[in-house]
Amino acid sequence: MSPVSEPPAPLTLAGAAPAVPAPLPIDGARTRHVAILGNPNAGKSTLFNALTGLRQKVANYPGVTVEKKTGACELPSGRRVELLDLPGSYSLHPNSPDEVIARDVLLGLQSDTPPPDLIVLVVDATNLERHLYLALQVIEIGRPMILALNMMDVAHARGIVIDERALEQQLGVPVVGIAAARGQGLGNLRRLMDRDVEPSTMHFRRWPPHLERVLHHLEARLPRHRDLPDRGRTDLALALLLDDGEDDALARSAPPEVLDDLAIVRGRLDRVEPAWRSDDVEGRYEAIGEILKRAVRSAGDPRDVTRERIDRVLTHRVWGVVIFVLLMGAVFQSVFAWAQPAMDAIDFLVGRFGGLVESLMPAGPLRSLVVDGIIAGVGTTITFVPQIAVLFFFLCVLEDSGYMARAAFIMDRLMGRVGLSGRAFIPLLSSFACAIPGIMATRTIDNRRDRLTTIMIAPFMSCSARLPVYALLIGAFVPNRWFGVLTLPGITLFSMYLLGILAAITVAWALKRTVLSGGRPLYVMELPPYRLPSWRSVTLTVRDRCLLFLRKAGTVILAVSIVLWFLASYPRGGPATHALQGRIATAQAAGDASQVQHLQDQLAGVSLRESFAGRFGRAIEPAIRPLGFDWRIGVGLITSFAAREVMVSTMATVFNLGRTEHDVVPLRQILREATDPVTGARSYSPLVGVSLMVFFVLACQCMSTLAVVRRETNSWRWPVFMVVMMNALAWIVSFAVFQGGRLLGFG
Amino acid sequence: MNAGTRSERTLDRLEPGERGIVARLDGNPGSIRRLMELGIVPGTEIEVVRRAPLGDPIELRLRRVHLALRREEAASIHVSGL
Asked: A321 vs B53: CB contact, 8 Å cut-off?
C-alpha cells in the first residue's frame, strides 16, 4: 500500500482534481519554463531526474562554476516544458554562489536564464517547519508556484499527518504530496504543472514600521521591468539593503543614485531599528508556526530514531573515526585499483588503434600527427575517465546517503587547522590517485575561497602518475639499505609523499593569508537524515561528470598534446637523421634486424635531441643547472607536461633506448652511468636524483590538471597562477636540496 | 532578559544532551541573519546533541533539523535554561 494515497486521499486535492486540465494559452512557440527549487536535501534533484529522465543537459552559468541543469519534461496534455533545476538554497538572501544564482533567476536578474513561468518548490514533508521558510520567501515574490511535499512516505512512516488542503488555504498555492524517490505522486504533480497556476495573494511578512517605510520608498525608485512581478520589487529592495556591495547582479539592477543612498539609509536604520536585518526572519518563522498549527494534524515523533542509532556509531569518538578511516581507505584503494584495469585496457586499445592507423596510413608527417599527436592526446584524456567515474560513484553514494556531511563533521577540526573546512578532505585524498577527479570533487565545498584553496593545493598530493618517475629515480640512485624494518628506497618514497603534504599545508596557509584571505565565513552545515541513494541519480551524476570532463577539459588536453607532439617532432630531417636513415636502409637490405632496431632507437634519440623540444631543453639548461639537471632532463621536463610518466619514456628516447616503457632496468643503469659528453664526468649523482624527485613532487607538470582547473574556476587566471606558483616553489626547493646537499658533501 | 529564567549561557558551554531556549544572537549581522534563517530564532529550543570526535564542531538539534556549528560560532548564541 502506498502511504501517499492513504485516505482521505491527500494526493488528490480540490484544486488539482484530475478533471480537464485548463491548458495555458499558447503564446506562439515560446516554451514554458518551470524551475525546481528547494533546500539542499529536499530531494530536488531526485524529482528533477524523475521528471526529465535522461533528457537533461548540464552546463555552467556564465562566469561562475555553478552548474545549470535543464531538461525537457512532458506534461499530460502532451505539451513539453523546459525544467530548470535551481541550486539548493536555504534562503533567497544568499550565502554561497549557488544561492546567488537561485535568487538572481527568481528576481529576473540572471540575463542568460529567463525567469520561470512556474516554480515547483520542493520541501521535505518530515521537516516542514524549516523548509517552509524558503517557500514563504518565494511566495512573497509573487510568481506562480506549486508546493511539492516530498518524502510523504517517510513522513507517513513517522506518523506525520499533513492536511494538504488546509496548507493550500494557508499558503494560497496548490500543494501536492509526492515521494520522488519512489515515483509516487508524480502524475498529480505533472497535471498541476499543466494548469494555469495563479500566484498567491497571501502576505506573511511583517516589517518593523521604519523598515517598511524605507522599503516602499526604495521600491518606488527602482526601475520597473517585465521580468519581476510588482510584489517581488520589495524583495529586490530588501536584497539591495542587505547586500554588502559585493553583488554585481544586484548592483546592476538599481540606478547609481539609489546605490549611493543605500549606505545612508542603512546607517539610519541601524540607529532606529538595530535588528532590522533579521526582523523579517523572525516574522516568517512566526507565520510558519501559525500555518503549521492549522495544517499539520499530527506532528509525529519529533525524533528520528533510525538516524540517531546510526549517528551514535558513525560519529562515535572511536568507532566513528575507525569507520571513517576504513571507508576513506576503501574509496582511495578503489580509485587506485578498480580504475587501473580499465585504464590499462584503454591504454592497450588506444595503442592498438594507433598501430592500426599507423599500418593503414603512409609514413609521413600526417601519420605522425594523427598517431602521436591526436590519437595519443585523445588517449590521455580517456584514461582519466575510469578514475573520475569510480571516484564520483563513491562521492555520490556518500553524499546522497548523508555520510559525506558526517565525514566533514569528523574532519572539520583537522582541516580547520589549515583554514579549510572538513569538506576539503575527500578531494585532497582523491588527489593522491589523481588530481583531476580530486579537483572536480571540490564542488561540494560551498565557500568560494575554501574551494579555490583546495584546488590550488590538490596537485601537491603525489598522484599515481608520479609513481613511475619516483620508481625510476629511486631504482637508479637510492641504494637498497635496511634501517631496522625499513629500506632506504621505502623511506625515500614515503618522504616524497610527505613533502607533497607539507607543501600543501604551507601553501594553503599562505594563500589563506594573502590572495584568498577574507572574512572568516560562517561555518554551518546541515547533517541530513540518512537515505538510500537512488541508483538513477548516481548513474546520472557519474555520466555527467565524465562527459563534462571529456568535453571541456578534453579539448584543452588534445590541443596541448598536439603542440607537444609538434615540439618533439619538428624540425625533422637534419643531416644526422639522413645519415642514420641511410644506414637503416642498408641494414634492412642486409636483413640485420637487431642492427635495424639499434639504429632506429638511435634515430629516435637524434630526432628528439634536434627537435624544438630538444633545443628548448638545451635553452633552459642554464635555468635548471643550479638544480643539478642537464639539458636531457630539461627535454623530459618539457615532454612530461603531457603527463608526468612521459618523463620515463622521454629519458629512454633521449638515451637511444627506444620505447622501453615496460622495462626500466636498462634505463636505470644508463642514468647511473650517464656521462657529460663534454667533460666525460658522471652526469647524475644520487643528489641529482633526489633533486629531480623533489622537483616532480612540487612542480605542476600536468596539462590535464591545468585544463581541469581552467574548467572548474572558469578562468585562465587560476591555472596560470598555479603553474607559476608551483614551478617557482619546485625550483626553489630543488635548488635548496641540490646546493645544500653539495655543501654538505653529497654528490 | 526574561525574568524568572535561569542565567544565560552561550551554546558552546552546553554539554551534549543539554537543552536551552535561544535568547539572543550576537556577532556580525550577516551571520546572525543566516543562523536565524536556518531556524535559530529567539524562542527556539535547541539541544546540543554531541561534539565531533575531535571536540569541534558540535551537532545541534532544533526544529527537527540537525546542524553542525563550530564552537567559536556557537559562542555567539545565547540560550537560557528550560
From this structure: yes
